[in-house]
Amino acid sequence: MRRNANSHGARVLGDRKWIIPFFASLLVSITLFLSWIFGVFSSPYSEHQLQFDEISFKKEGNSGGLFVESDLEKEVDGDGHSSGEPPTLAYLISGTKGDSQRMMRTLQAVYHPRNQYILHLDLEAPPRERLDLTQSVKSDPIFHEVENVRVMAQSNLVTYKGPTMIACTLQAIAILLKDNLEWHWFINLSASDYPLVTQDDLLYAFSNVSRSYNFIEHSQISGWKLSHRSKSIIIDPGLYLSKKTDISWTTQRRTMPTSFKLYTGSAWVMLSRSFLDYCIWGVDNLPRTILMYYANFISSPEGYFHTVICSAEQYRRTAISHDLHYIAWDNPPKQHPRYLSVQDFNEMIKSNAPFARKFPKDDPALDKIDIELLGGTGRFAPGGWCIGRSDDGADPCSVRGDDSVLRPGPGAERLQRLLENLLSEEFQNKQCS
User: Fold this and answer.
1) Which bin fits 80, alpha (ψ -120 to 50), beta or left (φ > 0)?
2) Crossing angle, helix 19-38 and helix 164-178, to 10 degrees?
3) pTM of the prediction?
């Protein structure tokens, strides 16, 4: 009897041999993840390297200083308006190998001198392609004159299903905040995204919208996603390898968190500066706590910002559950967006959304959008800031005027109809529900 008892005890102890190496690897992954994100505040590049690796076009902004909790709460509680002035947007446009030309096309379609733009071509792209993208930005006369487009010097490996995409997004946001650039909302796009309205339409429609709102499609995680995503533990090799590989799954499972609820939704967002200040500085440590949880979470881009905003009492009422995109899902099982084509054109317009995804490279639908929705005759979608002549096919945006002058068109009317619905009391009652 005693031998059987000892044998059983040894087997129990043997079954637990995985605990120490598992938690050690978990701690290392979280440490690498946090170090990667917040390393932007102490740049590893020397001054000499920056001259060659980064094209940094900057406008002088108002010096802000560090935020304290009372300042953040005051900003959220205010109406967020700025004397009827059009807002300023900050875009992150990201891509991978073979995407540099698509990124430039998307950039030109959403370009406006009021805005700020950061381009990130991940480490999977060859050095020649990253150099070509940098040179394209550097040699553009409008970009050089306005100084509002930059290419991220540090190319990161990005795995969509892993936390490296969130790490890259937070790094871009930190750069925008660190340099005190003037902007009100942050929008992330990929090379396969494209606008359905001009920037004049977009800026005009959002001129009367509170700058504290966050457009982020979200819902509380449930069903199969609750078990598959929240209890599984993954390792993103992009945190410590130099070549992109798929995420690795561990055999262990974890319990649900009890200090916050988990939310999920679209990875494509339009987030306020106030909320992103909170995510970066984390005065109550909640954003960092949730970030550590999502360091080993499957599809973390579809959950991190959503869980933070719905867990922070001062921000949950600012969450508008829409990603401002037209997306056509595969059917069944409605888990992956299908490629859009000319056949989807009418449905795109009916959606009233300002953006759509995803498009194949150089698809005819993009040309149709340029001509019929954006009025494109040159490199940029024209707006009130374009005061050059358009005779004989000339580019009117080659001569820059006052960037506060807007010429909204039918796209502004469509977008205003969407915003009226999203900002209605009935729709807002669904926030973080």
Assistant:
1) left
2) 30
3) 0.82
